[in-house]
Amino acid sequence: MHFAYPPRKDSNAAAFKPRASSSRLPFIRRGRKRVLALGALFFFGIIYFLTRPSSRHRGANPWMAAHLKAAKEEGTGSTMPGVGDHKAPTAADGNPFGADFSAATENLASFGKAPTVVLVTVYDETNFHRAYLDTIRENRRQYAKKHGYGTFSPKVGYYNLNGSPLSWTKVVAMRHALTLFPESTYFWFLDQNAFVMNMDKSIEGDIMAPAKIDAAMLKDFPVVPPDSIIKTFGHLKGQDVDFLLTQDYDGLSTSSFIVRNGEWARFFFETWFDPLYRSYNFQKAETHALEHIVQWHPTLLSKMALVPQRTINAYSKVEHGAKYETGDLSVRVVSCIRTSSAVCENEAAPFIQLWRGSDKQQQAAS
Questions:
Q1: Which of 23, 143, 158, 320 could cross-link 154 (Cys pair, CB 3.0–4.6 Å)?
Q2: What angle do CA 238, 239, 244 make, to 5 degrees?
Q3: Does the pLDDT value for residue 5 go beyond 90?
């Protein structure tokens, strides 16, 4: 049985008929509509930029505002146009308690020049005996005099911390020191309960020289031991380091650190002292705040170098960190942490005798 062939199609196809359209503008294609839309967007953008308020009247970026305030404090002028007519903060604004900062400041550089290094220590006269604190002041002054450095020695209570722990005083004191010594290069914060032991070592030559930093700094190293996933930069060069500090067995140590003066240093202290971090209930206040900001802000981490603890921050006991050895720059008396002044002084006594004994030997030799 054969099936019938399918019907054969007509070889002459019907003429093409365009699809009926309701548009009254058939000449506008889809591409042309897109061009017109972009043109309209560009036109209204131009109108916006021409009519928006100027930067002088808009809310300022908080970080830039901090920099502008710092510039005004130091008399360097503004870095942006249009803000030079703002009133600079007065001394009373930053000193609500009327503290005598002139008595806490000393320049031991020759011929009245700006000291290359400023040694900053905050003194707690409420919880420690006056004689012990005078010994520490003598230690600082002797070291500063030998190298022609400056000293800044504010007291706990000089600054209004708005209820924050008193340990935050070190941060605002360092920021204040940048203002008092604008021409100095390095600022070394050394805890009240630490002593300079090696009077021959200089900060600019033996610690902060680029070659010295390159040889000492710990690269690609966990910021917070033992297993922080954030590590120090492996490509950082000594000449680019603006912040040098150490770790102990618990984490970063803020009992001894050095900062190079400059815009980055001002930004660093203003970030560290931000009310957000001061009001947060960190277990170790400013120390844990520092650990937080350097791990979350590459701008800060990119200028930070970790060095072995004994470089600038040896401890009197091995339980908390690297123990002091002869020749180390400084030693921190760890028993002074959360103990009475008497306990602190007893542990500090051998180091005071050692420091004074070496000083007498040097004087006899000269």
A1: 158
A2: 55
A3: no
pLDDT at 7: 57
Backbone angles phi, psi at 259, to 5 degrees: -125, 140
Extents of the domains making up the chain: 99-365
SS3 161: coil
Structure tokens of 147?
């190298």
Please state, for a pLDDT cut of 90, what percent of the chain lies above it. 42
Cα four-point dihedral sign 347, 122, 266, 67: positive
DSSP letters of 6-30?
A: PPPPPSSPPPP-PPP---S-TT--H
User: CA 277, 281, 285, 289 torsion: positive or negative?
Assistant: negative
Per the DSSP assignment, residues forming a β-bridge with 73 are: none
**142-183 pLDDT, tens digit each:** 999 999 999 999 999 888 888 888 889 999 999 999 999 999
CATH architecture of 99-365: Alpha-Beta Complex (3.90)
Contact residues for 122 (Cβ-Cβ < 8 A; gap 6+): 153, 154, 155, 156, 169, 170, 173, 192
